[in-house]
Each structure stands twice: as structure tokens, then as C-alpha cells.
């Protein structure tokens, strides 16, 4: 008898989880078809950046959204990935894939080393610490002669190849790479949120003291979230280096990257599976298109529109855009119960 | 005629016109040659882009109109080689970001079908934009990006008529050598530079030149740009007291340096600056009284108008738009469009390869430019080696050209406080 009582809620839970997964796979498949319809280089560039920032924001979301540790220093991990990939490729001839993996592992280790002191800080103090550490990282790289210091690192011209991730004119391979990265970050998030870690993270986010008293090892779960988040951010950074074929400290470790990773998640909905993607889908094309088609006037109108949009969303939808869906879903539930 | 027929007719016509020779297509009334220009039009360096816009539009006006100015393509309206076709500048904003610069370059090339690109102030952006141009076989002309690394990448489509940082520093040391020959005492040098790409590059070259030419570097001071205090740095300079102090600083640091030296009661024997902050009007508004006798390198000097009449005429046209005189940056930007238009004119084509070949064959004497250069002739690497800089000295509240001799209007006052 007890089996049935337990099975009933479980069934609906399993069904909704499965539904989420099916929807995700359909979405990924649909996105994968886009290059068949779009061949314009510029449009592809916008789509690639959108997917990249969806993936980066999804990684940020693991630590910032689910675990509630708002990091404004993820540019550090992005930079580590970009520099590791560039240095290993340009100076040692190691293919981009190896560099990205190495950068990811290094980033995760750095996140653990930094998390050890920083996770003792709470709330805003933690956020401020992340900003400061990322800025220190930027200064160090600025003065790091082996890493090109302020001059940066230029990728040499190479024939088109999936190994080196170098394609002279073709954008489609980059598109599939970032789509893959986005799918992986989504699936990892999907797998973790309903695991024990996922529950721990949300408990830590809601009230770390209460969570601790209930047996959650708060510190370790924060460290885990930081390491996973940093790993994928660095992969994104490595991809960015291969994609642009040139990096310098300002162009990969500037504070704006930290914001660009947090902003889509905040706009779309913090701690939700699709929030970062929805946020990126609005922010990135918006920023790119306004710059390209209004920026040439030099009037700054593009930035005004961009700022206005962010304000409107944060005023009318403080929970993020995904909040709209949640609310309508709740309404539907309420109707069924009534 | 219904709508479908109109569309079909339109399509047929556009097909027909593409099959015509490009010269004839451009000869049709209203046909314009699109040139992509890419500068920071918003963000922290927006002012540079806004100034650049005035300069570039002035250049387009010179090319497209008919003027009695002794620079190529000015005389007749439009480009004679392409049936008097006019050029059309298409602006793009890169905000100082190499990734955005690259994306914009690709957009201009694939969507707007520009025949060449010009840019970009930031050397980092020039690096990615020129790589994209190379991949699409379209010439790129670096107007005001001065990093020496840019022309050392074996790019076929990269050109730079203006000097790079090493040529600038060479000019400064050539001047020092000339002073030494004239019997002035110059033995020790102090380097003072900020820690971004500009100061790093500049100091590296100066250190090497000082060694090669037998000057002793007695102070080698790197500082954090936009630093709130330079007291300890100035104390180091004061104790070393070099014969020549060579600062590479942006505006705020230049002002702070001069104020701090004044507070600590130190007067440098001679100041020979790598432009930047020491060529900015804001610096002279703030600490001009302490800068009498300062020498700075420059790509351009407005008093050259005495020796080159074209400078005054072009400057007037620019002033009508921008309400200020041409300076280091705007003169180089303006010249870049003239160089490119001249090449397109000679290429008699809008094909990337042909324009490249015409650029490579450029040989314009200095007198036919508004710059102090000997001439414009690109090397294998796309760099013009004859882009001599000038040295200007701040005397009586304005700059006068003091070096090299062919454009100098006065002799240098040396030592500056003597």
C-alpha cells in the first residue's frame, strides 16, 4: 500500500522531469537546424555569441542561481580558459580541445582555492570579494610578460580544422560547438538540480544556517558548485579565444564579462533551467543589432535602448522573464485544484 | 503590370547590371564605392571616434568634390579612374573590443560589400579586423593604430601609411643625436611609462634605442596608469635627475606627474614626450605653465602650413565640420582615406586584389600629402617606412615644429629651462 502512496507523486515528478528533457532535446534539435536556413556571416556571429553567453550564463547560474552565491568575478575563469587555450596552442601547438580542457581543470582548481577563504563571506561581502579577485587577476595578466602582457596573444593563421577550431570564413562549425556547449551545460544543470547536491544548494541559498543545522555540509556544497561553474566558464573562454583568434587582458578579463555572464541569468530568471538562455536570447542580439545598425551614428542611442530594456524588465519582472511562465503555470495548477 | 512582374523585372535588371563590367556599373549616375570605416563610436574612447568621423568625412568631401588642393584625387570630382564614381563611407562602431571589431568587419564585407576597410584607433582591434580582411581578400588600411606588431604578421592585405611606435621613438632619438652633435650635453635618460600596451611598447623600444646609441638609462620607472599618487615615482626621478626625461603617459597621469614634480620642487632638465597625454589640450589647460619647453613627438603639426599650403586648406575644411584644428589622430585618419581613394582610382576597379596591387604600387611624395612624411611607399609588410614623425616644442603657449629640418619652423630651445 505504501508503495502506491509514494509512487503517485513520484510519477508526476518523473513525468514532468521527462517532459522537460524532451522539450530541451526538441529545442536543441531545432536550433541545430538553423544553419540550414541562415547563411549570413553576421547573423551567424550573433547566434554564436547568443549561444555562448547562454552557456556561460548557465554555468554562472549553477553557482549564482541555484547555490545563491552571486559571483561578479567570473571573468577570471573566462580569462583562465582563454589564456590556457591560447598559450598551449600558440606556444606549444596543443590543439584547442586540449587547451580548453586544461583551462577548465585549472579554473576549477582556482575556484576551489579561492572558495576556501571566500565562502566564509556572506551575501554582498562574497560578491565584492569576487570582483576584487577578478580585478587582481586582470592586473596580474597585464604584467605577465610570458602571456604577452598588455600586447595579448595573436593566433597564427591556420587551415580550417576542427582540431584547432580555426575556420577562416565558415561560422557553422563554431555554431555547432557552442550549441554543444550550451546543451552540455543545460544537461549538467538538469541532472544536478534534482540530485542531492541540487537540493543542498537550494537549501544553502534559502538559509545557510538552517541548512547547516539540518546536516547539509554548506561549505562543501558551495565548493562543488564553484568548481563546476568555473570549469564550464573556462571552456567558454577557451572557445572565445579560438573564435576571435586574438586575446588581450582587456578583451577577455574585463569586468564587463563578469556582468555579461550574470545579466542574462538575472534577466531571464535566476535559478531556473531556461532563464539564462532566455536572457541571452534577448540581451545579446539586442546589444549586437543596436550597435551595428544604430551605433554607426555615434549618437549612443544603442546603449540608451539597451539600458532601457534592462530597466523595464527588472522593474516589471523582478524574478526574471521565466517568472511569467511560472506564474501562469501556478494559475493553471490552481484551476485544476479548484 | 502586377506586383510579381515588377519584382521579376527588378530581379532581371539587377542580374543584368552585375554582369556589366564594374567600371561601367559605377559610372552610372549615383553609383557609389562603399568603404568601411571602423572606429570606437561609443564607449570609453567614443571621443576619438567622433573626431575621426569628422576627419573621414572631410576626406570623402575632398575625394568626391573638386578642390584646388595639392593632394591626390582632390582636383576632379569623384574618382577619374572609375568614371568619376563617388566614394561612400560606411561607419561601424567597435567600442574598443577586438571581437566586436571583427564582427563588424565581417558585416561590412559580407552585407555592405565594402571594397576596403579603414580603422581603428585601438591596435588590438586593428589586429582582428585586419585578419578578417585577409580572409576575405580585402585591403585594410590602419590609419591610427601604431603597434609595431601589426605589420609583422605577413599579411598580404595590411597597409599602414603612418608611423608605428618604433619609428616615433627613432625620431626622438634621432633628435637627441642631432642635439648631441651640436655640442649639447645628453648622457643620461630617464624612462617613465604607464603599464598598458602603449607604455609597455614605447618603453621597450626606447630602452633598446638608448642602449644602441650609447645613452645611459638612469631611471626606468613603470607605474600603474590612472594611479592616484606618483610621489614615490617622482622621488626616484628626482634622485636620478636624468639629462632627458621621456614620459609615455596618458592625460590624467601627465597632469599628475607635472603637479607632483612641482610639489616636490623638481624641474626636469629636459622633457621629450611620447605624445599621448603630452599632446592633449586638457594637459596644457591644467599644467601648461609647467610645460614650457616641453618637446613631444607628433605625426602632424599645424604650423607646417607655412611650408605646405595644402595643410591650411584641408584644415579649414576640417575645422568647418569639427570646430577645431587637425591634430595627430585626425590628420592620420584623413590621410588614410586619401591614400585609399588614390589607390582605388589607379586600380580602376573595386576588386580587392586589384586595389591591393594599386596600394602596393603607391608612391606619393610627401609634398602631396598633409603629413610631414618623406613619402608614402609601402614595404613588403605593408608598412610605409618613410613616415617620419615631427618633434614639436611648447613655447609661448603653443607648439612649434623643431625637427626634422625640412619642416621645422624654429630651432629647438635646449635645455628647455635654460
Task: Provide structural commentary.
The complex is a heterodimer of chains A (338) and B (418). By secondary structure, chain A is mostly helical. The longest helix of chain A is centred in the first third of the chain and has 31 residues. Chain A is globular, with a radius of gyration of 21 Å. Chain A is built from 15 helices and two strands. A two-stranded antiparallel ribbon of chain A has the order 1-2. Chain A has two domains: 32 residues; 217 residues, no CATH class. Chain B is of the alpha/beta class and 418 residues long. Chain B folds into two domains: 213 residues, Rossmann fold, CATH 3.40.50; 146 residues, 3-Layer(aba) Sandwich (Rossmann fold). Helices cover 42% and strands 16% of the residues of chain B. Chain B has 13 helices and 14 strands. In chain B, the strands form four sheets. Chain B has a five-stranded parallel sheet, sandwiched between helices. In chain B, α3 packs across α11. The N and C termini of chain B lie far apart (86 Å).
Amino acid at each position: 500500500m505504501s508503495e502506491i502512496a509514494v509512487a503517485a507523486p513520484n510519477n508526476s515528478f518523473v513525468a514532468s522531469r521527462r517532459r522537460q528533457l524532451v522539450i530541451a532535446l526538441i529545442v536543441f534539435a531545432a536550433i541545430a537546424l538553423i544553419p540550414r536556413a541562415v547563411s549570413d556571416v553576421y547573423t551567424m556571429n550573433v547566434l554564436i555569441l547568443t549561444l555562448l553567453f547562454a552557456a556561460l550564463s548557465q554555468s554562472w547560474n549553477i553557482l549564482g542561481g541555484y547555490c545563491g552565491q552571486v559571483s561578479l568575478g567570473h571573468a577570471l575563469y573566462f580569462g583562465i580558459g582563454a589564456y590556457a587555450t591560447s598559450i598551449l596552442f600558440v606556444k606549444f601547438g596543443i590543439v584547442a580541445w586540449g587547451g580548453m580542457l586544461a583551462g577548465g581543470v585549472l579554473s576549477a582548481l582556482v575556484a576551489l582555492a579561492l572558495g576556501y577563504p571566500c565562502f566564509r563571506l556572506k551575501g554582498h561581502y562574497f560578491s565584492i570579494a569576487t570582483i576584487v579577485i577578478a580585478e587582481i587577476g586582470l592586473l596580474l595578466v597585464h604584467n605577465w610578460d610570458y602571456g604577452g602582457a598588455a600586447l595579448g596573444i595573436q593566433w597564427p593563421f591556420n587551415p580550417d580544422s576542427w582540431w584547432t577550431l580555426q575556420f577562416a570564413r565558415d561560422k557553422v562549425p563554431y555554431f555547432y560547438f557552442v550549441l554543444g556547449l550550451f546543451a552540455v551545460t543545460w544537461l549538467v544543470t538538469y541532472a544536478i538540480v534534482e540530485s542531492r547536491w541540487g537540493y543542498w544548494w537550494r537549501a544553502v541559498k534559502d538559509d545557510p544556517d538552517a541548512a547547516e543545522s539540518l546536516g547539509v555540509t554548506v561549505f562543501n556544497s558551495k565548493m562543488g558548485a564553484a568548481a563546476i561553474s568555473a570549469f564550464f566558464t573556462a571552456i567558454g573562454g577557451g572557445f572565445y579565444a579560438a573564435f576571435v583568434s586574438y586575446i588581450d587582458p582587456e578583451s577577455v578579463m574585463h569586468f564587463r564579462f563578469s556582468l555579461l555572464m550574470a545579466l542574462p541569468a538575472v534577466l531571464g530568471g535566476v535559478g531556473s533551467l531556461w532563464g539564462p538562455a532566455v536572457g541571452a536570447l534577448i540581451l545579446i542580439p539586442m546589444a549586437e543589432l543596436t550597435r551595428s545598425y544604430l551605433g554607426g551614428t555615434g549618437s549612443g542611442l544603442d546603449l540608451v535602448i539597451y539600458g532601457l530594456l534592462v530597466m523595464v524588465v527588472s522593474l516589471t519582472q523582478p524574478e526574471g522573464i521565466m517568472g511569467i511562465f511560472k506564474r501562469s503555470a501556478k494559475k493553471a495548477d490552481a484551476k485544476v485544484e479548484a | 503590370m502586377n506586383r510579381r512582374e515588377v519584382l521579376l523585372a527588378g530581379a532581371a535588371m539587377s542580374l543584368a547590371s552585375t554582369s556589366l563590367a564594374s567600371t561601367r556599373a559605377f559610372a552610372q549616375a549615383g553609383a557609389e564605392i562603399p568603404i568601411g570605416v571602423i572606429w570606437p563610436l561609443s564607449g570609453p574612447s567614443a571621443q576619438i571616434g567622433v573626431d575621426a568621423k569628422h576627419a573621414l568625412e572631410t576626406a570623402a568631401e575632398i575625394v568626391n568634390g573638386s578642390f584646388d588642393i595639392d593632394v591626390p584625387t582632390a582636383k576632379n570630382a569623384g574618382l577619374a579612374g572609375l568614371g568619376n564614381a563617388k566614394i561612400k563611407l560606411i561607419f561601424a562602431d567597435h567600442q574598443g573590443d577586438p571581437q566586436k571589431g571583427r564582427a563588424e568587419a565581417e558585416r561590412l564585407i559580407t552585407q555592405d560589400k565594402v571594397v576596403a576597410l579603414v580603422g581603428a584607433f585601438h591596435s588590438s582591434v586593428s589586429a582582428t579586423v585586419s585578419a578578417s580582411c585577409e580572409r576575405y581578400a580585402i585591403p585594410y588600411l590602419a590609419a591610427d593604430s601604431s603597434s609595431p606588431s601589426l605589420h609583422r604578421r605577413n599579411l598580404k592585405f595590411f597597409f599602414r601609411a603612418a608611423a608605428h611606435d618604433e619609428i616615433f621613438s627613432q625620431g626622438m632619438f634621432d633628435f637627441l643625436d642631432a642635439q648631441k652633435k651640436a655640442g649639447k650635453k645628453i648622457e643620461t635618460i630617464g624612462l617613465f611609462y604607464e603599464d598598458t600596451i602603449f607604455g609597455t611598447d614605447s618603453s621597450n623600444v626606447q630602452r633598446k634605442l638608448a642602449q644602441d646609441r650609447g645613452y645611459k638609462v638612469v631611471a626606468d620607472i613603470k607605474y600603474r596608469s590612472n594611479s592616484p599618487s606618483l610621489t614615490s615615482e617622482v622621488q626616484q626621478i628626482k634622485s636620478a635627475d636624468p639629462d632627458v626625461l621621456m614620459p609615455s603617459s596618458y592625460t590624467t597621469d601627465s597632469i599628475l606627474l607635472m603637479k607632483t614634480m612641482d610639489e616636490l620642487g623638481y624641474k626636469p632638465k629636459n622633457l621629450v614626450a611620447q605624445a599621448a597625454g603630452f599632446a592633449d589640450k586638457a594637459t596644457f589647460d591644467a599644467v601648461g605653465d609647467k610645460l614650457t619647453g616641453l618637446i613631444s613627438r607628433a605625426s602632424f603639426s599645424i604650423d607646417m602650413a607655412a611650408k605646405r599650403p595644402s595643410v591650411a586648406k584641408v584644415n579649414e575644411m576640417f575645422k568647418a565640420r569639427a570646430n577645431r584644428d587637425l591634430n595627430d589622430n585626425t590628420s592620420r585618419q584623413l590621410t588614410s582615406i586619401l591614400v585609399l581613394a588614390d589607390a582605388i582610382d589607379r586600380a580602376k576597379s573595386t576588386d580587392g586584389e586589384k586595389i591591393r596591387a594599386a596600394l602596393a604600387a603607391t608612391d606619393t611624395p610627401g609634398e602631396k600629402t598633409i603629413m610631414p612624411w618623406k613619402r608614402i611607399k609601402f614595404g613588403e609588410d605593408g608598412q610605409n617606412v618613410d613616415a617620419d614623425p615631427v618633434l614639436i616644442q611648447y613655447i609661448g603657449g603653443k607648439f612649434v615644429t623643431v625637427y626634422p629640418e625640412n619642416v621645422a619652423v624654429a630651432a629647438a630651445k635646449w635645455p628647455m629651462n635654460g
